[in-house]
Amino acid sequence: MYEINCVDETFDPNFTTEYILSIQVGLDGFSFCILDDIRKKHLVFKHYPFLLSNNLFLLKEIDEIFKKEEILSKNYKRALISFASNKFTTIPLTDQENYTDSTFTLNHVKEKDELILNSTEDFFKLNIIYTVPSGIYNFITEKFEKPEISHQLKVLLGIISRNSNSNRSEALISVSKRYFTIILLKEGKLNLINSYNYSNNMDFIYYVLQVFKTTELNMSESGIFLAGEIKEDSHLVEFIRKHFNKVEFIKLAKGYQYSYTFSDIPSHMFAGVINPEG
C-alpha cells in the first residue's frame, strides 16, 4: 500500500469545531478522515502505511505523524479513534456485569504495556473487550479532550449490519497484512466472529474454508463482503469468487458527499475510517 493524501479545497482549518475527525491506527498503518458535519461532506483523507513489529515503534510513528500533520492538533466537534488489531474478545451485553480482565486473558496474552478496554456494540448487543498500548492511549487522550475510543471490530459490525440481507447467510471478511477478521451472519443473526493470522494465500484460503465447514453453511448460497487490504484483481479474490456466487466489495456509505479528491481511493480498503458510524 502507498501513502494517500486527499484534501478538498473547501477544507477550512479555522472551522474544525464543526468537523468530525476519525482515526484508525494499528501496526499496519495510520489513517484519518475529516467530515464537515454541517454539509455531511468528507473533506480530508490521509493514509500512512507501515508494517511494524511492536507498540513502541507504533508510538514513534504516530508521534511523527502528529508533528507533520498540523490539522491533527486542531479542536474537533468529535474525535473518533479506532484501534485495529486481532486481540479482542466479545461477550453479550447481558453478561457485562460479570466482565473482568480475566475474560480477555482467557483468549489472549495481555502485554505489560497494554490496557484492557471495552466498547459496547448496540445492534448485535455485544461488549467488545480489547487491548490498547498504554503509551498510545495516553498520547491520544492528551491530544484530544474527549476522544471516543473503540475497536475496529465495532466499525466492522456496523458495516455488516447496514449491508446484510436477513434472508441469507453472509460473511464480512476484513483483511489486514498479517491477519483477517471474519464476521458470519446466519439469517441476520450473529453466528461467528474470529480473527486468523496468515502468512500466505494458502493460510487464508484454509481458514475461510474451515469457517464455513465448521458452521455447516452453504458457500455457494452465502454472500461475501470484502473490506481492507485486498485487491480486487488478486488471486485471493479469484479464489473467493470460485466458491461464492455473491461477492461484493464494501462501498462508502450513502447519504454523504465525498470530495472529488477521494475518487481514486479504493473505498473498500478505507470504508471503516471514512465512515466509522455509517
Protein topology:
Blueprint: E1 4-7, E2 19-26, E3 29-36, E4 41-49, H1 55-68, E5 78-83, E6 88-92, H2 101-105, E7 114-121, E8 126-133, H3 134-143, E9 148-151, H4 152-163, E10 169-175, E11 179-186, E12 189-197, H5 201-215, E13 223-228, H6 235-243, E14 246-249, E15 257-258, H7 267-274
Parallel strand pairs: 2-5, 4-15, 5-9, 10-13, 13-14
Antiparallel strand pairs: 1-4, 2-3, 3-4, 6-8, 7-8, 10-11, 11-12
Describe the overall structure.
The mean pLDDT is 92. This protein has helices spanning 55-68, 101-105, 134-143, 152-163, 201-215, 235-243, 267-274, and strands spanning 4-7, 19-26, 29-36, 41-49, 78-83, 88-92, 114-121, 126-133, 148-151, 169-175, 179-186, 189-197, 223-228, 246-249, 257-258. The longest helix is centred in the last third of the chain and has 15 residues, at 201-215. The protein contains seven helices and 15 strands. Strands 1, 2, 3, 4, 5, 9 and 15 form a seven-stranded mixed beta sheet that branches. A five-stranded mixed beta sheet has the order 12-11-10-13-14, with helices on both faces. The protein is α/β, with parallel strands linked by helices.
Key terms for this structure?
278 residues; alpha/beta; Nucleotidyltransferase, domain 5; 2 domains; 7-stranded mixed sheet; 5-stranded mixed sheet; 7 helices; 15 strands; globular
